Amino acid sequence: MEIWQAIILGLIEGITEYLPVSSTGHLIVAQRLMHIGTLSETDKLAADCFAICIQGGAILAVLGLYYKHVLKMIKGVFGQDPEGLKMAIAIIVGFLPAAVLGLLLNDIIEEKLFGLWPVISAWIIGGFGILWTVSWRRKNPPRGNGRDIVKLAWQSALFIGLLQCVAMWPGTSRSLMTICGGLIVGLSVKSAVEYSFLLGVLTLSAATVKKAIWKIDGAGAAYDVWLGGSKLMWDTYGAVPLTVGIVAATVSAAFAVKWLVKYLQSHGLSVFGYYRIALGIIIGSLLLTGTLEP
């Protein structure tokens, strides 16, 4: 992998991770266009691991921007902040469905759904899902501007967590499902976005650790269990591309997160719905004409 390719992948990851457009879908398309991970099954496994590991940059961005929320939750866990404890419980409950189903369905998802046609389908369906949510929210406005995260009941957090599981289908977007879920249960726009970010830190951290350390079957079976995919990726690309990708993801994610919060409070989600539908049609057309390989 060339340095410029690592930069592009890092920027794509950082910009799209917290926007409701699917970072996974964008990364799959970018890898295809740059012919990364297309040489062999081992090459594909290394590329998939790289795409997961640069999520660390997006995690660092949110931890930096929302460190006060994180500290508040830590204090809550240790009995020093009641509101922080409520936030922590809401995040943990929202994470649990993905933790369970992720372990059960990961192999099936990677085998059956990590292709461009499933991604295109998810883009288009998710686009219409956004437009439906916007319409539903307009017809069913919350009291005032909506609830804060600390008032999120565990039942509502569980509902959002179940919606997050739908995003295991590449192209759906974890942010899409959690933001829309937050709006449906009555959170304010700002709180829905922030809950999505904070839930993402836990979810993405778990996914990154699992992909980087968990034993890889098949082509990666010869690698040590505790190193797993990270050794395969390390041997294939080396340290520099990974470092560059993480840095690019961190910087771009920080800008994307700050922009998204401001944008949604005044403009709403609709533009992302139209973007997803248009992108799905464009990429689908490229596949049908043979311009892009599936």
UniProtKB/TrEMBL annotation:
It is a multi-pass membrane protein. It comes from Luteolibacter algae. Keywords: Antibiotic resistance, Cell membrane, Cell shape, Cell wall biogenesis/degradation, Hydrolase, Membrane, Peptidoglycan synthesis, Transmembrane, Transmembrane helix. The gene is uppP. It catalyses: di-trans,octa-cis-undecaprenyl diphosphate + H2O = di-trans,octa-cis-undecaprenyl phosphate + phosphate + H(+). Pfam families: BacA. It is found in: Cell membrane. Bacitracin is thought to be involved in the inhibition of peptidoglycan synthesis by sequestering undecaprenyl diphosphate, thereby reducing the pool of lipid carrier available. Belongs to the UppP family. InterPro entries: UppP (IPR003824). This is Undecaprenyl-diphosphatase. Its main location: membrane. Its EC number is 3.6.1.27. Catalyzes the dephosphorylation of undecaprenyl diphosphate (UPP). Confers resistance to bacitracin.
